[in-house]
Design brief:
Its EC number is 2.4.99.12. The protein is α/β, with parallel strands linked by helices. The chain has helices spanning 2-5, 33-47, 76-86, 100-108, 135-139, 150-158, 183-192, 207-220, 239-248, 277-283, 302-306, 322-331, 340-350, 353-390, and strands at 23-28, 52-57, 67-68, 90-94, 112-118, 144-147, 198-204, 228-233, 253-255, 268-270, 286-289, 311-314, 334-336.
Length: 391
């Protein structure tokens, strides 16, 4: 704090106006955390529609209607201005960087603070190395701390955090509900495809990626001749290019948007966009997630697919969602493939229903674990908001 007092205030942009009423502040302190925070805040706002949302940090994904702002510097003037302007009733913080001056000021102003996704890695702060480590004192400003696992809990204990402050264990994950699907259409297609092994290539991002997937399918059908592939481009703009690649493959096609229905001879079902992805996630026990075999896209969010109970395959280019893929891969719910050869090999193994089911069950465990933590945080936040309104 002595170091912070010696720093001058840097000029900053004028923040947007603060609406009246309660405000929830979300700080996304690392890549990928904003989406999970967004899911948590969106569910909380359903119960408290009057709640204003503010997000800072690395907001790669923000809740609809949320305000955005930059974190202030650590000088007393900057911190005081931020707290006086926003006056948050609640704050959810993620990331391993701590801001001692800001968090102390918020705690003094009565903001209830929760630290989520605390990991077994060193904490950092803006102070230089010659300043005494502020970690232990700064962690005391949080009302609740949620470590992701036992090693993280032990690190927090060594920093002086009481067990009563961290009753919840587990990572914060995006626990969005499954995509919508027509029950009538699902029942009809289930009857049509009874007994046929199916796999899905979801949200393909280029004709090149579609070509790789079709090469893998050709190899896989040599061992499972009744295997059918469902091709789903990420956008309608890609539909023509993906369809052309499929026609050039020499495989027997079914054009879904043209009103065709698959039969015993169909090898590939081609769609024009992802509008009915909820149907295909329910019908296919195995899915390859697009935007991952070819550079430049960063992959698709795997939690959406995992919420449907499906075994996941993905390529190496998933930088935008790496924490989520790593979590699913560690649980045995997702498997990386490097090219169409390894994709074909993985498919040949996962055609066996028991193997695909084991991966799908592991993914469901990850989703359920995240949902339990989200439910607990929503209940905690609602309780604190009720207390603030009574006071």
């Amino acid at each position: 704090m002595a170091y912070a007092r010696g720093r001058g205030a840097a000029p900053g942009a004028t923040p947007p106006a603060r609406p009246e009423g309660s405000l929830l502040w979300l700080h996304a302190g690392g890549p990928g955390s904003a989406r999970a925070l967004s899911a948590l805040a969106t569910r909380l706002k359903i119960q408290r529609p009057e709640l204003t949302l503010l997000i800072t940090g690395e907001p790669d994904h923000a809740p609809e209607g949320a305000l955005r702002a930059d974190l202030p510097g650590e000088s007393p003037a900057e911190v005081a201005a931020f707290v006086a302007h926003w006056r948050p009733q609640l704050g959810f913080w993620t990331g391993q960087e701590l801001r001692p001056a800001l968090l102390q000021k918020l705690q003094q102003a009565g903001t209830r603070l929760v630290l989520l996704d605390a990991r077994d890695v060193p904490w950092t702060s803006p102070a230089p190395s010659w300043v005494p480590d502020p970690t232990a004192a700064t962690l005391q400003f949080f009302d609740r701390i949620c470590p992701v696992d036992e090693p993280a809990r032990r690190r927090l204990r060594r920093a002086g955090v009481e067990d009563s402050t961290m009753p919840t264990l587990g990572p914060l994950t995006d626990s969005a509900p499954p995509l919508d699907c027509s029950t009538r259409l699902y029942e009809e297609m289930s009857g049509v495809l009874t007994g046929r092994p199916i796999w899905l290539a979801a949200k393909l991002r280029s004709a090149q990626e579609a070509e790789e997937v079709l090469h893998a399918h050709k190899r896989a059908v040599r061992l499972a001749h009744r295997l059918m592939l469902v091709l789903v481009p990420a956008t309608h703009d890609l539909a023509a290019a993906v369809a052309e690649v499929a026609r050039d493959s020499g495989l027997r096609l079914c054009a879904w948007e043209a009103g065709e229905m698959p039969d015993e001879n169909t090898q590939v079902l081609v769609t024009e966009d992802a509008s009915e992805l909820g149907l295909w996630y329910r019908l296919a026990p195995v899915a390859f997630l697009g935007g991952s075999l070819v550079n430049g896209h960063g992959g698709e969010d795997p939690m959406e697919a995992a919420a449907h109970g499906i075994a996941l395959l993905y390529g190496p280019n998933v930088g935008r969602h790496l924490p989520a893929y790593s979590r699913l891969a560690e649980a045995g719910a997702a498997r990386i493939v490097r090219d169409f050869d390894s994709l074909a090999g993985a498919l040949s193994q996962l055609v066996a229903p028991d193997r695909a089911a084991a991966m799908a069950h592991a993914g469901w465990d990850v989703i359920t674990q995240g949902a339990e933590l989200t439910d607990e945080m929503i209940a905690l936040a609602c309780g604190w908001l009720d207390e603030a309104e009574i006071a």
